[in-house]
Amino acid sequence: MEMGPPLPFHTHLYSTLGPWRVGESRKFLLYARQIEIRGVDIDNPYYNYIISFTVPDVDNATVVDYDAVEHRIYWSDVRTQTIKRAFINGTGVETVVSADLPNAHGLAVDWVSRNLFWTSYDANKKQINVARLDGSFKNAVIQGLDKPHCLMYPYHSGNSTINRCQLDGSKLEILEGVKGKLTKATALAIMGDKLWWADQGTDQIGTCDKKDGGNWKVLRNNTSPMILLHLINNNGDCSQLCLPTSPTTRACMCTAGYSLKMGQQSCEAGMGSFLLYSVHEGIRGIPLDPADKSDALVPVSGTSLAVGIDFHAENDTIYWVDMGLSTISRAKRDQTWREDVVTNGIGRVEGITVDWIAGNIYWTDQGFDVIEVARLNGSFRYVVISQGLDKPRAIAVHPVKG
């Protein structure tokens, strides 16, 4: 089992790439945005591998890494000047480093020696630090760097170079093949013999040889905003989440609201009836049984002011209106995909309802005093009622009776 160092991910994107092999492998991306940390499938970026972390635990995350031994996520927060960790199921959130932590834009977990490395800098100190995973025995490994950002191939934003060194800080050297090619790298990660990089200045993601920086290759353009990339090889014929339990074994797990089929690795919807509700920062679901404290779905985050929601049971799809973003959106309950279906011509929409028989959505618009209809994908939009309305809000349909 191997794990590469994380890449810094800012309000743009931090990249942390690292392989996680247990038998045959699949890949997922662990990434951080300013107030959110997620783990998603590489091929299906709206499918969540882990519980998403957000406020109040995440205030301004800049970098994230993963410890496969204890199944913990580690991240640094520049606003609170802390390094925190938590289990991937969302429990055990705790602060491990909180003192003397300015501008911690680089973080890496040494899962073998059980150490934690991070970069920090201010006007007086520019260094790479190390401590035990619980934050004890903190020490500076390298000092005098020029705005270090990533580990343990640190990127220097001051002179636009990528360097590498031993974990004890010795043998610090510059990758000659990278000189003059990066403008503002914000993320680095290692997989196999390749070094992955993200350049915020050119909005590119690419690779090069980790040994000398040769074989420079741009893989993707126009990737802004990007700060943290972390690629993990995840195994095991599991349809959703695969967790290593040892170097050679793994356990399959399912996202919230789903359960493993008996004796199999595939997941199925395990909760047919649940309460779907929205809060300003997202959409959540809980079981109808008050005694059941589990979640019916992984919270849908990234909303600004979600005020109206409905559910298409046959398609297992959630629809919602976002007054803050002025959009109507939808997502699969397991969040394997997500999209905006209406993005323009919206006033103040608060109510939405799904006609699951005809395949239409209806919504009310207080701003224009109208009720509109469209296909489930937002096409063939049409004003149904435009007269005699005074700030319409809630709406419902009875598809059977028309």
CA distance, first residue to last residue: 57 Å
- The poorly predicted ranges are 1-26
Number of helices: 0
- Counted up, domains total 3
Q: How many β-strands, per DSSP?
A: 34
Can I get a quick summary?
With 402 residues, the protein is mainly β. The protein contains no helices and 34 strands.
Describe this structure in words.
It is elongated and about 75 Å long. It has strands at 25-33, 36-41, 53-54, 61-67, 72-77, 82-87, 94-97, 106-110, 115-121, 126-132, 139-143, 155-156, 161-164, 173-174, 185-191, 194-199, 204-209, 217-220, 231-235, 241-244, 250-253, 258-260, 267-269, 274-279, 282-287, 300-301, 306-312, 317-322, 327-332, 338-342, 349-355, 360-365, 370-375, 382-385. The protein is mainly β. A hairpin with a 5-residue loop joins strand 20 (241-244) and strand 21 (250-253). Helix content is 0%, strand content 44%. It folds into 3 domains: 28-231, TolB, C-terminal domain (Neuraminidase, 6 Propeller), CATH 2.120.10; 236-270, no CATH class; 274-385, TolB, C-terminal domain (Neuraminidase). The chain has a 4-stranded antiparallel β-sheet with strand order 3-2-1-19, with no helix packed on it. A 4-stranded antiparallel β-sheet has the order 4-5-6-7, with no helix packed on it. LDL-receptor class B repeats lie at residues 71-113, 316-358, 359-401. It comes from Neolamprologus brichardi. InterPro entries: 6-blade_b-propeller_TolB-like, Cueball_EGF_LRP_Nidogen, LDLR_classB_rpt. This is EGF-like domain-containing protein.
